[in-house]
Amino acid sequence: ISFRFWRRTAATFHLIIVIYSMVVLIGIYIYQFEKVNVFLSKTFSKQLLASIGLEIVPSDVLAIKLLTPSTFLVVNIMQLYYFHSGWMNLIMMPNVYFNIIGKNIQGAPNGTLKDIHAYAKENEIKTWQDKLYKFYFRTNRFYKQIIYYGWRFAELHAFKLVLLIMVLASVLKVCAFNIVLIILITIGLTLFHLRKLINLLTLIATGLYILASMCYQLEIAKQHIIEKNFFLKNCSHIDLNISSIPNDTAKWFGLELTPKIDRFIGLYILLTICLTFDAIVRYRQKHRRLSLSVHFNVRLVENRFPILFEPFALKNMNDDTYEFDIINYKQADEKICNFLKYLANFLFYRFGLEICYITTVIVIAIRLDMMAVLYGIWLGLFLISSRRCIQRMWLCYVCFLIISFPLQYISAVGAPPFLCFG
After folding, report:
1. Quick check: is 260 in a domain?
2. Residue 203: CB partners within 8 Å, gap ≥ 6?
3. Which range of residues forms the domain containing residue 29?
4. pLDDT in tens, 345-401
5. Is residue 122 part of a domain?
6. What is the pLDDT of residues 161-177, one digit of tens each?
């Protein structure tokens, strides 16, 4: 939800995990006693007990079965009592953040924007290499610059990686649940400033789907839902050999009974990992900018241009203006290094329209259907129009893509089987 909320609830979360692991550990162990086993078997069915992990196991297998919850319990206890407080202090946002927001910076700045960029590159992370700095000067400097630009590259493109994984998950498994992901992808591509909200909604939706898929594999679900054909709907006028739409509403939604649940939800687990990585990158970069603001006694903000080099900007507290340190097209002619930096920063800005033309041609060549005809019409209009006219038409083109992209996926998913009355 937010970094501050996570910091406040991290200890409680680990404590709940510790208590839960202890309950699981004690429950599995106590269930091996005959009296407890008989009492619970009379109260609940064996299938239900097996679904929640309570079953009789031989003595030689019991130790192995208890190994996972025991290890999980020990790791969480060590994290909570030995590392939690130190970790929280390490990632604490500088207190000056509140002063910066309140515009209470006093005194003259300790450096210019060029000094800040140079300092950030040279002092990215203090590692054991710093102790051998005199001997490994070049290697250490190169390493820090890789870390510096690596985090910046991740800040720019981690969200795009999240959207790519969402597209892959939706394409590789066409189901009704993925319509939610497609809609979130469309919003995320058009409204990039809603990055945090899109990540939060995607994380909630993915978590619910993973939980539902795992619950669908339980024995109790098999007894009360699958074997009774609760979601099954046969349509007499639909040929199932021709139609790709399943007659099972659960399968249409994306729930299937599978022996390999890890492969079934693998992409969604990967998506969750990417969402976590994106959040780590965002908060790490925010922490870095605040630390540099404290060091130089300025208000340092992210550059409003999504560029790799010179990612910081100074905000003047008096008139709310910004100072940028960006290599422009005039400086790009001075040195090869400046030219490469300028090319990396503004490649799509300079040649974005041409790149869009190329991708549109590729889509038309691959699809060869009615949508390809519509894309071809748009491409023809752009090619015969001036830049000013294209600028006016571009919003309409984006709206066309926003509407057509989800509709194409919805048409592939089809109507739910429970609406069939034939």
Report:
1. no
2. 272, 275
3. 1-92
4. 777 777 888 888 888 899 888 888 888 899 889 888 888 888 888 888 888 988 999
5. no
6. 999 999 999 888 888 88
